[in-house]
Amino acid sequence: MSEFYQGLAEILEVEESEVRSDMELGESWDSLAVVSTIALIDDVHDVTVHPNALVDCKTVGDIEKLIEEERAGASKG
Amino acid sequence: MTSLLPPGAVAARIAAVSTHLPTTVLDNDALAALYPSWPAAKIEDKTGITERRIAAPDETATDLACAAVDRLLDSGACCREDIDFVILCTQAPDYFLPSSACVLQHRTGLSTAIGALDINLGCSGYVYGLSLASGLIASGAARTVLLVTADTYSKFIHPGDKSVRTLFGDGAAATLVVAAEPGDGGTIGPFVFGTDGAGAGDLIVEAGGLRVPRTADTARAVPDDAGNVRSREQLFMNGGAVLNFTLREVPRAVGALMQRTGTSAADYDAFFLHQANRFMLDTLQKKLKIEDGKMPRHFAHIGNTVSSSIPFVLEREIAEGRCSHGMRAMLVGFGVGLSWAAGSVTF
Questions:
Q1: Tell me, what CATH number does B296's domain have?
Q2: Is B304 a catalytic residue?
Q3: Which of B228, B274, B298, B323 does the annotation list as catalytic?
């Protein structure tokens, strides 16, 4: 996950060491952060996540869960 | 590689490009004053755009288009009377009817013995326009086509909608597409196209046409969840959905064109992509694995000029001598529709 955490740290404007699964996305989780994260997930994990599902994420763990669901769906498809 | 023209077809080439910008500048300091959470440095960092041009209240896309055509004619690129067809790509027409292209024919003093029509496309419009212009020439229907792109998205944007106001700028371009004489060199095409109307609502000015006529309700501006303000008569963009569509379809279109022409990325000297913004271009460049020197950019001082964004890059690259004889480029447009296209051009 380190490449993903590194990218997420840049998007959320925090230190990479602060990014953990239970980290709250908080106020910085705006539309720009969501769009940037879509590109990051596409780059690192090669899966497409739905923007509305991403908007609803509250923690870093929620995003990771979404990625896992997409990967499972993609491998079935 | 050839342009894959059928036997007997006339080859076309791009002979000249001229652009025009309105005079009013909207810079990041002015925007940052409106959006407390987005300082000017953040807007520049995320979009790569420092300023955009905005049409005057009484200045329409047709005005910008006429100015671009006047510049092209003043440059001596061709004689006014040689032009035998005008294609105007705009989403901001003066009227429901007649076509802005008819108004432009008269205002720019073009012959009445010409064809003129509008096409309604956004960021994919230039590539579609080139395919239509070269098709008219290939069939012998025309020999000198003026392809004009002009838009004023600023007039569709609520000042309180930072999601689009930071990105779009007004502008116009006139491209001269001519029948290639033997020995001229230069080709246009082939092209690959894509359309997905399922995403029509992802980039839309919903009210004001006949499906959703203007009412007091459609004029009411309200903030969305992200705090961006707009009415149904104004531009809405679902940035995430547009990004997903772009990341999915642009690499496919690029691959499809290479397959059709039997080429690989190494066969192209340059990739002229629609100049959406820095973030979009960085993401696409990485995904398409295009080297830095092969993807010219021009948006920092003009923003996303919709269907004119590619000719703005072309004009500069031609002026600086980077579109030399024999050079091969791929042009890729993508956006509102959803609509996309890729085409091959040699100079």
A1: 3.40.47.10
A2: yes
A3: B274
Query: Treating both helix axes as pointing N-terminal to C-terminal, what angle do B278-288 and B40-47 enclose, rounded to 10 degrees?
Result: 30
- B123 flagged as catalytic: yes
pLDDT value of residue A72 = 87
In this prediction, the residues of chain B whose per-residue pLDDT falls under 70 are: 1-3
Structural tokens at position A62:
């929620």
Residue B101, both tokens: 């292209």
Domain count, chain B: 1
Sort B300 into a burial class: Cβ within 10 Å, 0-12 / 13-18 / 19+.
middle
Could you please report the per-residue DSSP string of B163-186? Answer: HHHTTB--EEEEEEEEEPPTT---
ipTM value, please give it. 0.87
What is the C-alpha separation between B3 and B22, in angstroms, rounded? 36
Distance CA B338, CA B194 (A): 8
What are the tens digits of pLDDT across the range B23-63?
999 999 999 999 988 899 999 998 999 999 999 999 999 99
> How do beta strands B171-179 and B12-20 pair?
antiparallel
From the CB of residue B46, how many other CB atoms can be counted at a distance below 10 Å?
18
* Tokens 């905005």, residue located: B54
The DSSP-derived string for B123-135 is TTHHHHHHHHHHH
Domain residues for the domain of B237 are 1-347
Question: CB contacts < 8 Å between A and B, how many?
Answer: 46
Q: Is A32 in Cβ contact with B287 (below 8 Å)?
A: no
Q: Is B304 helix (H, G, I), strand (E, B) or coil?
A: strand
Name the residue of chain A whose CA is nearest to B282's CA.
A39
Q: Does A34 contact chain B (CB < 8 Å)? A: yes
> How many angstroms separate the CA atoms of B239 and A32, rounded?
8
- The answer to whether the beta carbons of residues B39 and B164 sit under 8 Å apart is no
Query: Domains in chain A and their CATH numbers?
Result: 2-76 (1.10.1200.10)
| Structure confidence at residue A31 (pLDDT) | 83
Cα end-to-end span (Å), chain B = 14
Active-site pick, B28, B89, B304, B323 = B304
